[in-house]
Amino acid sequence: MMWRSARLIAGKDLRLEWRSRVGMNQVLPFAAVVLVMFAFALNPDSDLLQKATPGLFWVSVLFLALTTVGRTFSIESSEGISDSIRLSGLEPSGFFLGKVISIGVQLLILEVLLGIGVTVLYRASPAEWPLLLSTVGVATVGIAAAGTLYGMVAVSLRVRETILPLLLLPVLTPVLIGSTRAFEAAINETPADGWPWIGLMAVFSFVYVAAGIFGFGALMEDS
Amino acid sequence: MTNSETVAATGPLSTGSSTTRVIGILALIAMGALLLFGLWLSPDDVNQGDAVRILYIHVPSATIAYIGCALTTIGSVLYLWRRSQWWELTAYASAEIAAVFTAITLVTGMLWGRPTWGVYWVWDARLTTTAMLMLLLLGYLALRRLPADYDVRAKRSAIVGLLLFPNVIIVRQSVQWWNTLHQKPTLFANGLGARIEGLMLFTLFIGFIAIGLTFVWLLIHRFRVAYLAEQLEKEDLDRAIADRRAEGIVR
Amino acid sequence: MDPANQPSLPVVHLRGAVALLGRFPALAGVDLDIEARSIAVVRGANGAGKTTLLRTLAGLVPVSGVANVLGVDLVHHRRDVRNRVGFLSSQSGLYDDLTVIDNINFWTRAAGADPADAERAMELLELDGRLRDVRVGRLSTGQKRRTSLACVMARRPELWLLDEPHAGLDQDGRDLVDNLVKDAVAAGATVVMSSHELDRSLALATQVITLGGGTTLLGGDDVA
Questions:
Q1: pLDDT surpassing 60 at residue B251
Q2: Residues 217 to 236 of B: which have CB under 8 A from any C CB?
Q3: Residues B181-226: pLDDT tens digits?
């Protein structure tokens, strides 16, 4: 039952994104703008930009996550849809998982494209692919789960745009620290330094997925 | 009867009680003792000199901030589980007081850092985690204070509150792995092999007692204020219903 | 859900029902009985509480007092009534960026309804032609209305709650709604709708409820 609801919601969200093309028309160009801005701020001729690449990558991902989460929940709060969702037979925990999957998939696509951008523009040299890919995987799950939970907390609040960053970004600092260090370990080809961070982020993701599954019912009960 | 007379007749005049008076007096005595021992009777530290005296406030404040944070999480869990308003208000009050003590921890940490390290701020594990704790608490408080129906507000905040302490633990772990510059924890490193001894240790314990009592005193008062505020909102309901029904009659 | 089994229990039974939106008592003490297979029309000035009444009956709004819908105690278990009612809101309740067929498929599957019922509803509401693949955002008000109605119909609810169902529809559309309402009642459902279209809805109604100031001014009157 939960998985059925999750599949429906994820499918609907991704289809909606595909049809509305907001991701392609607005979020991607935003990512490109951010990449370029960092280059200007950090002077691409020194090696500062290269050294800072893991951090810049993940900070950009966090900003993109804010946009993605905000957008995903704003469609649910217009046109009386929140009433319809509550009246439908969808399980709250399934709704949560569906959103996590949908946000996760959108973030993964953005991360791949951002990764290409960073490799080309900042002349990064990725290595240790198992570590890199695991980092991307576990960090994305954590960001999507926390984003869905706090996105729902902030939904339909007039001040959503300002409170979501305040709630979500401090919470995501462990993911920022962990993923940046893991990326650095991969680039420096010292993967042993990176794997403990994967463990930490896995714990983080687990905590947030569990919290969402158990707590989402209460959150959806606002009238 | 005018409005203000009605309120005065039904509500208490202050949030004080015999309990808070006792705690308050004990806290004052403990604070007095702390000042006495902290500023005069205890010796300078071999390495840090006079600066060690700030720690008698800094360390207990940090501990109590974490305890307050844990209390917020516990209160949030119990609200979600038992729908107990009492626990929800405790969570809220505790978060606010914890924020105050977190600020004190940060300020005293900076004041201690200047003479000891030469700078006001370093990105070491303890200070950074405390700064993150401040941000997490501010997020919770901002959300809790947004105007909305009590149940809606309480449920949203309780989800954030429930995750507050786990967040602190995860952040703390990640920050500790990331960087360790801070002086090794004096009391809780290697089990209870305390590095400070004698009169200084005693003064530190007085500090814990004084700060702890102050926290409890502030918590009780803040809880009661929040409780009364919610009661006031509920009392308006009957009047609101009467006003609403009158809309239909006036033609 | 055969009403003949429980002749004494009305489908809707409210006594002193108070519904709060935030701190505002949108319903300030409603007394109401609606029997099975009725068509109850709720009228009243703007802001009188018509929409809130419908949302309360759908189990969406916390309510105190006595409130029973389809045998479910709304005060304590309002979530249980939700999958048995069909609510047509004054907003579309549809995703603007998805097509008509996408929306109907999603909402039908979410409710666990039979896809055949959805197809039939689309035929009845004339949505299976060229409108099928049009994005909902591009539809006229009337077309959106029909799409929302199709989503309601596909669920085969025991209680229909319609908020201004005639608004934004042309003459043909309004006739269509009336026929659907009659068919639903004939099949055993009960319909409660709010309306400003007094002439048309009074012709249809078996019961008129007038709301003012969040309370019932004139309750279960049968229409002469």
A1: no
A2: 233, 236
A3: 334 444 433 333 346 677 888 888 999 999 999 999 999 999 999 9
Does residue C74 or residue B10 have the better pLDDT?
A: C74
Distance from CA of C78 to the nearest CA of B (A): 16
Which chains neighbour C (Cβ–Cβ under 8 Å, 3 or more pairs)?
A, B
A33 and chain B: CB distance < 8 Å anywhere? no
What is the value of ipTM here, to two decimals?
A: 0.88
Catalogue all structural domains in chain B, each as residue range(s) with its CATH number. 19-231 (1.20.120)
Instruction: Calculate what percentage of chain A has a pLDDT beyond 70.
Output: 98
Picking from C76, C82, C109 by the largest number of A CB atoms within 10 A of its own CB, the best residue to mutate is C109
**Assigned domain for C175 exists:** yes
Residue C140 lies in a domain: no
pLDDT grade, residue C220 (50/70/90)?
very low
For position C199, which CATH number holds? 3.40.50.300
Residue in chain B closest to A218 (alpha carbons) equals: B155
Q: How far apart are CA B83 and CA B75, in angstroms?
A: 10
Q: Compute the half-sphere exposure of residue A167: CA atoms within 13 Å on the CB side of its CA.
A: 31
* C-beta atoms of A200 and B80 within 8 A: no
* Span B28-35, average pLDDT: 90
- Structural domain contains residue C1: no
A1 touches chain C (CB under 8 A): no
Search chain A and give the residue with CA nearest C19: A223
pLDDT of residue B5 exceeding 60: no
Q: What is the CA radius of gyration of chain B?
A: 22
Is residue C17 helix, strand or coil? strand
Predicted confidence at residue B249, as pLDDT, reads 66
Residue C62: other Cβ atoms inside 10 A: 18
Which residue positions in chain A have pLDDT lower than 50? 223
In a domain, residue C191? The reply is yes
As a whole number of angstroms, the distance between CA B233 and CA B237 comes to 7
Angstroms from A184 CA to nearest CA on chain B: 13
Buried b (16+ CB within 10 A) or exposed e, A178-194: bbbbbbbbbbeeebeeb
Q: Nearest 10 degrees: CA dihedral of A142, A145, A148, A153?
A: -100
Q: Number of folded domains in chain C?
A: 1
CB contact under 8 A, C95 and A89: no
CB of A46 less than 8 A from some CB of B? no
